[in-house]
Structure formats: C-alpha cells, structure tokens
C-alpha cells in the first residue's frame, strides 16, 4: 500500500501524541524497503510546517502552537503603516500596530500571540514563518545613513541597504529602478540588507512595471527547462485519424484583438431554414499537455496566463501557446468542437461534441469583423468567403442576446481603457477601449458553447469543473437599492434576489449620467465567480449550468474541462475515476479560482501604475470626475478620462463638511457631495511608488 501525507496526518490526529519513527513505520504498515519513502514524506510535511520533529518524535505543529497559545496567520499591510493578522474565515482578524509592522511585509506568514487591549485585541509577532517577498523592485538612494533601495509597491515601503561597492559597480544614480534580492530582513536594531540583481533604468515603463508586478505577486517570468524541453519534443504534424472529424474544408475563422498570438477559438456557421448550425472550434490543448507532465504541473501552478501591458506571461511554453495549439490561419490544427443547432428563439435543439481537425481560413481582428459586417469593399475583396457567414453570425448573436436578456442575464459592460506606448515602452496616453458588435458575437458564441458543454456533463452526472456564481448577500443588495434610491430613482426592495431584479435597475439608469456609477456599484454588490465541482448555477448570466471550455491556451480549468469531456464522449470513466476525480478536480478548481484572483489584481495593479506614470506629467491640470466613494476622511473620485481613482481629502474642501455614512454623503451648509456626482478636480500630487493620487476639488 502506498503511504500518503494524508495517512500520516490522520494517524497523528488519531494517536493524539508524539510518536517515534519506528512506531510510525510499524503502525502504518510500511515495509523496511519503503523506509526512505516514509522519511521523504515526513521531511515534506516538516517543510510545509504541518508536522515537527522534537526530541526524536514527530508531532503535529498545531499541538505545539495550541500549547503555547500561538496563532498562525497571514499579514495584510495597510499603506498607513498598520496591518492585520488574517487568521481564517471564522476568526476575527487581529490588529498589528505600526511598530510591529516595521519588520513585516504584506503576505508574510507569522506566528503571533493575541494581546488584550481596551478597544481591540492586537497581535504580538513571535516568529516569521515565511517571507512573502524574496526579491523586489525599488529605487536606489544615498544619504547619510548609507546606500539603500526604497522598495516600490510593497504596501509599506521598506529600506533595503546595499553595499557601497555594489552601487559603484553598477554606477547607480539616485532614483534608478533596480531589482534587489533581500538577504537580511529588517528586525529590531537590524537593517534590511540585500544585493542588486538587475538595473532597470530611471523610467517606470512596461519593463519596470512587469518586474515590479512579477515580484509582488510571485509570478513566474520563465518556464522551467523541463517544460521547454517537453514542448520542443512535441510533434508539429497534424494527422486526420478515425476518431477525429475532418473539417479542413469548412469556412471557419478566428476573431481576436489585433495583437493576439494565442488563438483559442475559431467559429463557423451554416443556416438551415430558420435555424443556425454553429460550430465553436477550440484549440485541443489537452492533446499535447498530458497529466503529470512538467508542462501540466507548471500550468496548474500558474492557473492562467497573466496579461501585463505589452507583455504576456503565458501559462504554457511559447511553442504551445503561439504555435502548436494556436489556431493560426491556413494551418491544420487539432480542435475540440461543440456543434450546435440553434432555433430562432436562441434554444439549442441539438448538439454534438467531438474531436476534429480544422484549418482556419482567416485571422480577423474585431475591427475588421465589424467592417465586414457593415460593409467594407476593400476587406470584402480580401475575405470574400467570410462575408456571408459573418452576416449570419450577426443574426444569431442578436437572437442569443435577446434570449439572455429575457431570462435576466446582467450586462455590466463597464467602460474600459487602453494605454498607448512609445516604441521604448514608455506610456504616454490613455484612450477608451471600445467594445462593439464583433466582440458581442464572439462573447455570445462562447457563452452558448460553455452552457451546452456544462449541461451535457451535468445531465450525465460525471465529475466536472463548473464556473459558478452565487447570488449576492441580501444586505449588500439592500445597500445597493438604498444607493440607487438616494440618486433619485424609484426602486423597491426585492422579495427574492434574482438576476432580473438587478437587470431592471440597470435598465432604469441606462443612458443617464449615473449609469456608470450604478453599474459599478451593482458589480461591487456581486460575489466573485469561481470554479467548483458542484453546479450551483451562474447568477450573473442567469444560467443554471455553466463552465469554461473555450480558452485552454490561457486557462488551466479549461484544459481539465476538456479532459473530462473526452472521457465522457469516449465512455472512459471508470469506477475509480468516479470515486477519485471529484477530490482531484476540487483541488484544481480551488487553485484556478485563487490564481484568477491573483491575475485580476496583478493586471489591475500594472495598469494603475502606468496610468500614474502618465498623470505625473499632468500635475496642476484639471479633469472631470465622478464621485465613486464617500468616507469620513474625504471622497474618492474617478477621473473619467483615465479611469483611475484619486482621493480628495475632506480637510482640503471649502467650508466645513460632515460625513453622512447612511446616505454616503459629505454635507455642509452650502454644498452636498454624494455618490455619483460629477465634479471637477485638480491633480495635486502623484506618488508612483505608493500608488497614491491626491486630488483637490475645483469650484
């Protein structure tokens, strides 16, 4: 019998006291020949800090911590200098005062003791178990205390001192951005120390931001040697075999952003009377990425591709992401196809899911697709064979949109922005990113394919990964309704929370000055969508069954959805699979959900940094903004031109203002500021490293 980590943990829990190695070996039935394997697993558990080895015996770490009254938690730093110890969902966080935070970084795992205080219990840090930051980006400075790097974007800035010789060696000038490795962490009476790994220059451009973000979020910037070697060995020949449908003659094509290189999906359509036969072809990544391979293990750890400005940190090695799997035009490619027959009300009346071989006949950008739909003679001459299919696609997409709207699907459709760069990667402007009909066509086709696949697996009751979205909390919905009522709209409280209820409110504000704010607040009311092995439906889409099937080049969840689908259509689920897979898929779902949050935060962070770089050249200038938050110390205003929030401190406002928390307002005798108000502000100060934008109100 193969011994697992779980077996050891369960035995120790059941035993309830420390044990010697020999007893552990005997009780678990490990033969002498497997002693080395057992020791290896025990070392792994020690590394993970799940067990400890003391006085010749093994014990669970939690026993020791309970005995000493210690709590393990994660540090969450606040820019103001204090922090919180995050212990768990069911336990209240502990306050970490600024003196303790001087030696801690956001994300550190620590052992602490709760100390009673009059207002709130505080955490007294006993030991740092794991440092969140090993390398970081910062600016080099020199003063009477020595040569140091002031770390950028570590929430609370830390000074990491470097050797004078290193500063000379790299000919560092003040304010130069560098990558530093921390060799000694700050502690009482001990300076933080480090060594320079890389010099990035004096400008905060795409290169600098990518380095800061990659280190802040621990994003891998390179693939392992093993993964690259595996990718290089994969054959490039595509063969049409008996288990694959030959669709190489079909008129299918891709529609993607102009700069895209990883083409996950291609589409094709035929009209049959008043019905439409839609083909959604997805890159067959699971054909190449085998379970347990180095590529697969890396993809699991990454969870998805990270799209930073002007740079993508791919989930898969370049050869797979941009070559073998990418559905490039005029090349034979392995695909996984969802073929659907859809009637005039948007209902799928028949479908088939199968492996195929396709040849994409064109690579269109969204703008090109739109121009072909509305009529562009030059493009029609270049792509004559896609004009008719695109017109059919427009018809079908409108039918699907109408069906989705009828069932209550919520369209948040928030404004998006795009940063423009010089050839050297320096940001110089922000422009609106327009989503139009061509985007909606692809979006609708991907949604209907995802639903069809999910429903098929749900009805078969096979182990699977669903994309789920729970309904929002009633308290949050009531606050949202109060906010909309406060803006002057007639709204009632819901008897039952449904997507249709939220949709109706958004319809009320459509085309009004408050529309963007109300959409934004509605989005804040929602819970985050995630991956789960239980199907609980998707609230935002008003869908009873949903998954992610359409982007396996950039999402690990989709690769596993493909694997389960293949087992289903080939009848290869075993009894062992049905017992074993739910637990394994649950682990994958949790990892993918976690890394998706990391990707969202990292991508948002990177955009904000570059926007602040641009705004540092506009200090003193005035802009239109909308109030997106009202707090006791001021109001947050989003600059409409740049889609970034800044703070107008309450003490900089004319007159004396009081904070009305219930109605989210600042009130004075002469003026009232409320959520959604449009005001003019001036940029007073930009701190790129602390990510702060200070604004003042212009009367």
Automatic annotation (TrEMBL):
E.C. code: 3.1.13.1
| Reactions it catalyzes | Exonucleolytic cleavage in the 3'- to 5'-direction to yield nucleoside 5'-phosphates
| GO MF annotations, alphabetized | exoribonuclease II activity; RNA binding
Query: Which Pfam families does this chain map to?
Result: CSD2, OB_RNB, RNB, S1
* Organism superkingdom: Bacteria
Q: One Gene Ontology cellular component annotation?
A: cytosol
Q: Which SMART domains match?
A: CSP, RNB, S1
**Which GO BP terms, alphabetically?**
mRNA catabolic process
The protein's location, in the record's own words, is:
Cytoplasm
Q: What is its main location?
A: cytoplasm
Report domain S1 motif positions. Answer: 620-698
Keyword terms, alphabetized: Cytoplasm, Exonuclease, Hydrolase, Nuclease, RNA-binding
Q: Which InterPro entries match?
A: CSD, CSD2, NA-bd_OB-fold, RNase_B_OB_dom, RNase_II/R, RNase_II/R_CS, RNase_II/RNase_R, RNase_R
PANTHER family in the record: DIS3-LIKE EXONUCLEASE 2, RIBONUCLEASE
Name the protein family.
Belongs to the RNR ribonuclease family. RNase R subfamily.
Recorded hits in NCBIfam families, A to Z, give: 3_prime_RNase, RNase_R
Tell me, what does this protein do in biology? 3'-5' exoribonuclease that releases 5'-nucleoside monophosphates and is involved in maturation of structured RNAs.
What is the name of this protein? Ribonuclease R
**Chain's gene name:** rnr
């Amino acid at each position: 019998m193969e011994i697992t980590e779980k077996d050891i943990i369960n035995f120790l829990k059941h035993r309830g006291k420390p044990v010697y190695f020999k007893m552990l070996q005997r009780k678990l039935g490990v033969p002498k020949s497997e002693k080395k394997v057992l020791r290896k697993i025990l070392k792994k558990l020690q590394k993970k800090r799940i067990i400890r080895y003391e006085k010749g015996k093994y014990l669970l770490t939690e026993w020791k911590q309970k005995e000493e009254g210690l709590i393990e938690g994660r540090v969450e730093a606040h820019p103001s200098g204090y922090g919180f110890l995050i212990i768990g969902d069911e336990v209240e966080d502990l306050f970490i005062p600024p003196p303790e935070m001087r030696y801690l970084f956001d994300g550190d795992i620590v052992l602490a003791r709760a100390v009673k205080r009059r207002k709130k219990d505080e955490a007294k840090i006993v030991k740092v178990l794991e440092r969140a930051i090993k390398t970081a980006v910062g600016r080099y400075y020199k003063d009477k205390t020595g040569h140091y790097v002031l770390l950028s974007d570590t929430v609370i800035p830390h000074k990491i001192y470097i050797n004078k010789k290193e500063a000379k060696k790299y000919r560092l000038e003040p304010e130069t951005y560098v990558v530093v490795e921390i060799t000694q962490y700050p502690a009482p009476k001990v300076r933080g120390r480090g060594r320079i790994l890389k010099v990035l220059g004096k400008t905060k451009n795409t290169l600098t931001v990518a380095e800061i973000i990659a280190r802040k979020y621990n994003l891998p910037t390179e693939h392992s040697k093993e993964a690259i070697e595996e990718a290089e060995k994969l054959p490039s020949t595509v063969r049409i075999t008996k288990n694959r449908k030959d669709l190489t003659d079909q008129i299918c094509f891709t529609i993607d952003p102009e700069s895209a290189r990883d083409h996950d999906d291609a589409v094709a359509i035929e009209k049959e009377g008043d019905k439409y036969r839609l083909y959604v072809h997805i890159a067959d990544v699971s054909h190449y990425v085998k379970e347990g391979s180095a590529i697969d293990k890396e993809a699991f750890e990454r969870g998805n591709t990270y799209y930073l400005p002007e740079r993508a940190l791919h989930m898969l090695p370049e050869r797979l992401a941009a070559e073998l799997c990418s559905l490039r035009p005029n090349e034979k490619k392995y695909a996984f196809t969802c073929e659907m027959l859809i009637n005039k009300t948007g209902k799928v009346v028949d479908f088939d899911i199968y492996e195929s071989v396709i040849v994409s006949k064109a690579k269109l950008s969204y703008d090109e697709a739109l121009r072909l739909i509305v009529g562009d003679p030059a493009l029609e001459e270049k792509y004559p064979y896609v004009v008719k299919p695109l017109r059919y696609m427009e018809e079908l997409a409108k039918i699907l949109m109408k069906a989705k709207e009828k069932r209550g699907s919520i369209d948040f459709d928030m404004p998006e922005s795009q940063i423009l760069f010089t050839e050297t990667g320096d940001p110089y402007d922000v422009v609106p990113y327009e989503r139009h009909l061509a985007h909606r066509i692809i979006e609708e086709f991907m949604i209907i394919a995802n639903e069809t696949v999910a429903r098929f697996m749900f009805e078969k009751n096979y182990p699977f990964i669903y994309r789920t979205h729970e309904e929002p909390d009633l308290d949050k919905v009531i606050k949202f309704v109060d906010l909309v009522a406060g803006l002057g709209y007639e709204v009632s409280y819901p008897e039952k929370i449904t997507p249709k209820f939220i949709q109706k409110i958004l319809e009320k504000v459509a085309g009004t000055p408050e529309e963007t704010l109300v959409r934004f607040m509605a989005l804040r009311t929602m819970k985050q969508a995630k991956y789960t092995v239980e199907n609980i439906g998707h609230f935002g889409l008003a869908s009873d069954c949903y998954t992610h099937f359409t982007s396996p080049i950039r999402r690990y969840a989709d690769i596993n959805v493909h694997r389960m689908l293949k087992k289903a259509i080939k009848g290869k689920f075993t009894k062992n699979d049905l017992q074993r897979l739910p637990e394994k898929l649950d682990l994958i779902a949790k990892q993918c959900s976690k890394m998706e949050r990391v990707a969202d935060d990292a991508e948002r962070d990177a955009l904000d940094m570059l926007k602040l770089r641009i705004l540092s050249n506009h200090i003193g200038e005035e802009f239109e903004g909308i109030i997106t938050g009202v707090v006791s110390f001021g109001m947050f205003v989003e600059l409409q031109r740049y889609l970034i929030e800044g703070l107008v401190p309450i003490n900089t406002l004319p007159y004396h203002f009081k904070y009305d928390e219930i109605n989210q307002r600042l009130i004075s005798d002469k003026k009232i500021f409320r959520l959604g108000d449009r005001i003019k502000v001036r940029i007073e100060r930009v701190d790129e490293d602390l990510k702060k934008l200070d604004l003042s109100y212009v009367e």
